[in-house]
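Per reviewer request, we include the raw input and output of the structure prediction for the construct analysed in the revised manuscript.
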Amino acid sequence: MRSSEHIAQFISKEESDGLYAALASFPFVPNEDTGDYEHACYFGKSYTLYGGPRPAEQPDIQPILLPLAKRVAEAAHAPANYIQIHRMKPAADVRPTKIPQG
């Protein structure tokens, strides 16, 4: 596992506040694995374990997410072509992502 790197001021308070406010209009749906404990929304190039789009997946990334996605892609030296946002209830468990390649 690679170590993480903190990038100071990666997102400003103003941008964070704007993103938080925008979340209210995002198309959150119950996560197919956790049901009511976690809701998520999905934007961009489809990525699922078994292929095909997820329910309610949006083919385009929301414009308000693009500046942050660009900065993340530059820092990671990898494209940002898919964004998942998860909204979890306090009782929900955080679990690792199942990546087909292992």
